[in-house]
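The passage that follows is intended for readers who have already worked through the single-chain material. We present the inputs for a multi-component assembly, then the predicted structure in tokenized form, and finally a short commentary. You are encouraged to pause after the input and sketch how you expect the pieces to fit together before reading on.
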Amino acid sequence: MSQDTIKVLIIDDHDMVRRGLRAYLEIEDGIDVVGEATDGSEALSAVMTHQPDVIMMDLIMEKVGGIDATREVLAKFPHIKVIVLTSFYDDEKIFPALEAGATSYLLKTASAEDIVEAIYKAYKGDSVIDAKVAGKMVNRFQHKPSRHEELTSREHEVLVLIGKGKTNAEIAEELFIGIKTVKTHVSNILSKLGVSDRTQAAIYAHQHHIV
Amino acid sequence: MSQDTIKVLIIDDHDMVRRGLRAYLEIEDGIDVVGEATDGSEALSAVMTHQPDVIMMDLIMEKVGGIDATREVLAKFPHIKVIVLTSFYDDEKIFPALEAGATSYLLKTASAEDIVEAIYKAYKGDSVIDAKVAGKMVNRFQHKPSRHEELTSREHEVLVLIGKGKTNAEIAEELFIGIKTVKTHVSNILSKLGVSDRTQAAIYAHQHHIV
DNA sequence: CGTAAAATCAGACCTAAGACGGAGGCTATT
DNA sequence: AATAGCCTCCGTCTTAGGTCTGATTTTACG
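Having made your guess, compare it with the prediction:
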């Protein structure tokens, strides 16, 4: 479409960040910031209004998060490139964002050059992944499908209750099963997660946001 | 000192945020951005170099966090006003920051006007606390000193290890004390936190980000 | 229909965890 | 000098947690 200038839409609830980003991008001849939105819920209409080529997307916003917004936008406009630009790099954010179709994943510690470069690359169809984030991705591919995905639904249910600090007796009562059965589930959970007691399982549950 | 212009130092590891902030402040006649730092470790030297009246301080930075930096700076320059400007508003950040001597606490969702106003107020000695943060403070005063602050340093240490999933034996080994002693500490921790077993204590530790 | 996985329960067994009570040494504050 | 809080440790006792082996029933799938 636009051969020379890339139309960029900024979606971020931090006014300050939008300002900073604009400052970066407005001095670039090849880039034109065509609009802004302050929440994922405004994303779709902003996209329709401004017809951007690239979206700079924050992940954590008041109403609708960036991941959902990305999914929505790409469902209707699959040609748009979404660059995630956020402060966080934990597993529970990165992978859903990429699954939702984000092209690149940058951290807000990125420099102006990094960001400008990422936009040009995204426009060409290339991806830029922050080094810290890339490290996480490597782990993901080297190892496991996040062990707890192997849990059966019942085991998952039990793990959630462990994560809430329930005792076996309480779990049994809550699930209308016997304590012996709960113990069986707990044992299976522990070995599947590769941990050695319920406390570590509870920690696992919290670190993986299963609570 | 400076009757008409307030000298402001920005400390934040997000280049973009620094840009945005500068954009806000540079159009203000009464405010002069005299310098920047990208990490808490640079804070002290930057303060000595630029002699600011007000510091805009991010909390989460690579090496030295904003809370420690605030403490350091105020120890040597108690007349400086520190405005915390961050994305987070959980208990474990807010209160330590205020205890460290921060004057105001703003979120990065704040508008230009909010920030400019906060700087003028801070310079006069007034505080500005974001509404969301203020809500947390009210809770704090209505209720409790976040139970775990009653923990002794040793107990806190033990709680951290519980939060890492260690057994009593492992904790004993790691702290060079007897298992019996660990048990005593654990018992005290449980009753102080108002929980009934180590698993709940571990969950508590994670939810309050003491890990 | 046959098979495999999931869910349920049982008994025997062992151990870590936690409660309770008591106690001595250390340090800081008054 | 004395009080108070913290850290350390001991023994005893009870129970919750966890393993292992094994078994029955239900559910799902080809």
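Commentary: Chain B has a mean pLDDT of 86. Residues 167-169, 179, 183, 186-187, 190, 196-198 of chain B lie near DNA strand C (CB under 10 Å from a C1'). How closely did your sketch match?
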